[in-house]
Write a structure and sequence with these properties.
This protein has about 230 residues and is an all-alpha fold. It has one domain. Helix content is about 65%, strand content about 0%. It has 12 helices and no strands. Helix 2 (about 10-20) crosses helix 3 (about 25-65). It is elongated.
């Protein structure tokens, strides 16, 4: 495809940063655009695997403590999320239940709630409300030190980085540039990729086996770097 056709389809505004990053080389700009899509697919797949693993670990942990339908019960009157400080969490649960209607099951409710919901399980109020024991899903997490606290706030902030990238990809934003600058960079993606692998390790999950054949992030990053 000629660049003029490609630009007409994707819009000059969208493609311009790729052209700038490739110093006016339109052929390289089209290659970079495609590599960005491929990188987005790859990292989104890894994030999706992590999201499922995270929510299942949280569900298994709290299921063992609070029993069947712990999510539904937590949002009811008297439930541990039915408080002013956790009203948005309770609201998210109730909205998901309403959406499911007669198709409701606990497992379907777990799947219906998004990454942001599970991230907020480590926010101060939600973490406290659910019993302050959710860090147990990370049995290999390092012990806190005087200089670095591996507490719920630390985990929340780590998950926020992953959640933000997930949302950017879902909204078709490019991920191959430095923030706000038309300069190609894979540093952020490499860092978040490493973060996900680290969190898998903390959960005692063999990430390499889990995403075998799906994770080509390093390979694509190298192609972008050398373009």
């Amino acid at each position: 495809m000629k660049f003029s056709e490609f630009e007409a389809i994707m819009s000059s505004q969208r493609i311009s940063r790729y052209v700038q990053a490739c110093k006016g080389n339109t052929k390289k700009a089209m290659i970079l655009y495609r590599l960005n899509l491929k990188l987005s697919q790859e990292i989104f797949t890894v994030i999706s695997c992590f999201e499922v693993a995270l929510r299942n670990a949280i569900n298994k942990h709290l299921y063992a403590i609070y029993g069947n339908d712990w999510l539904l019960n937590s949002a009811k009157g008297g439930g541990f999320f039915a408080t002013k400080k956790c009203k948005f969490t309770a609201g998210s649960i109730n909205e998901a239940i309403f959406k499911l209607k007669q198709n409701y099951t606990h497992n379907k409710l777990v799947a219906e709630l998004g990454f942001g919901f599970w991230r907020f399980m480590f926010a101060p109020h939600q973490f406290t409300a659910s019993g302050k024991n959710l860090l147990q899903i990370f049995p290999v997490k390092p012990s806190s030190t005087q200089f670095l606290q591996y507490n719920n706030t630390f985990v929340y902030n780590q998950l926020a980085q992953i959640n933000e990238l997930r949302n950017r990809i879902a909204h078709h934003e490019p991920i191959c540039f430095q923030s706000g600058i038309p300069l190609k960079s894979t540093t952020e993606i490499r860092n978040i990729h490493e973060l996900i692998l680290q969190l898998f390790q903390w959960m005692s999950i063999d990430a390499k086996s889990l995403v075998y054949g799906l994770d080509h992030i390093e390979f694509i990053c190298k192609k972008i770097d050398s373009l």
